[in-house]
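HOLO CASE FILE
Compound: glutathione
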Amino acid sequence: MITLYGSSKSRAARSLVALEELGLDYWHSPLNPRAHADHRATLDAINPNSHVPVLDDDGLIVWESMAINLYLAEKAGGPLWPTHPADRAATYQWSFWSQTEVDRADWNRARRGGDEALIASDRQGLIAALAILDRALEGRNWLLGEAFTIVDVNVATTLSQPNENGLIGWQRLDAAAEGLSALAAWLARCIARPSYAAVRDMS
Ligand SMILES: N[C@@H](CCC(=O)N[C@@H](CS)C(=O)NCC(=O)O)C(=O)O
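Model generated. Tokens follow.
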């Protein structure tokens, strides 16, 4: 039995999209620790970091959205999990890149602090990172080429959760308006998938 903890309006959306794409049976517990003290207590018992998402796979607890998604995709096998080591290397590379270069802790500080200079440099830094992804996507439908795989789920959901309608990061950047046309087209393909629609409707 698989349980995924975390509201669809949080980073848990990344793992909910992965579960939908992999076609796995699971139970969703939409923990919202900021709104409910009892949810916080439940979360603290399964993740010492007190963050969602958390996966419980028959008693195996995994936290960190990218770890959860890579674990699920490898375990499920099938078309979302690349068989060639070079493709798996690219999968790890872009998944970790999305966390260190896009979902950065220091950029979260800009969001909370309200410091205009920090917000402007956050925006420039995000655009510079996105330009790297844009170049990698030129001439290809998906990050690994012709096949949609788990790395597309990981990077797309980090950039824009289903409830964020294709706008990127907390500053809600529009890739097309920034001239990132390959990235904009790829993101549009990702968010048009049924998995995004399914998660958008969840609690
Ligand atoms: N790197 C973690 C980040 C998880 C994270 O920051 N989750 C937020 C929700 S979006 C959280 O649980 N924050 C704790 C809180 O809301 O108190 C991951 O990707 O799983």
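CASE NOTES: The beta strands are 2-5, 27-29, 54-57, 60-63. Residues 2-77 form a domain with the Glutaredoxin fold (CATH 3.40.30.10).
CLOSED: yes
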